[in-house]
Amino acid sequence: MKFFIDTANFSEIKKIIDVFPIDGVTTNPTLISQTGESIQSLIPKICELVQKPVSAEVIETEKDKMYQEALQLSKLHKNVVVKLPLTKDGLAVCRLLKEKEIPTNVTLCFSPLQALRAAQSGATMVSIFVGRLDDIDQSGMQVVADTLEIFSNYSLKTEVLVASIRHQKHILDSALLGTDIVTAPYKVLNQIIQHPLTDIGLKKFLESAQALQKK
Ligand code: G3P
Prior knowledge:
Layout: E1 2-6, H1 10-19, E2 24-26, H2 29-33, H3 39-50, E3 54-57, H4 63-75, E4 80-85, H5 88-99, E5 104-109, H6 112-120, E6 125-129, H7 130-135, H8 140-153, E7 159-163, H9 168-177, E8 181-184, H10 186-191, H11 196-214
Helix pairs in contact: 1-3, 4-5, 6-8, 8-9
Bound molecules: SN-glycerol-3-phosphate (G3P).
SN-glycerol-3-phosphate binds next to α7.
């Protein structure tokens, strides 16, 4: 399973890649707006830093304008993955970008049939927002499980990207299901390597080592 970081915060990305292998970055207009920087200046910097796929999202909603914006975003850096909304216009643009071999991340997916149509439109990856489904008392992970089964049934190559991750359990469940990619916030990526017994065990080992040195 590939691990992406879900942030547009440059210092968070820098901190995480110093410690963990990271396979990509996902951003969205909300995350970009929190940085105070423009997408045009920020995305190339992030791409240069990580040298991995970086999702940059369109904000146009009408097909022709969205297509033009998508082409501009893809020119920002060779590692840009154009993020498109799962709408009629978004899927139409997805097909056009597929013809040009421009990678896409179809986002705001909340059902297995939406995911199927995104895959059939040539999406490189499809982002299922599990946390937002859980928020409305629906099972985000069930949508992921059903999507994986459908993609397997038809040998679809689109990668299932689990997004809107709220906690470690989402990541564990994603791995158990055989998800292709998870994208998680900085905080959750750090949490997954922590365990209280690791800290207690290390403390005890250090105490033993110190006691030995005193002898
Ligand atoms: O980047 C898309 C997704 O991960 C957003 O998550 O927490 O806003 O539901 P959230």
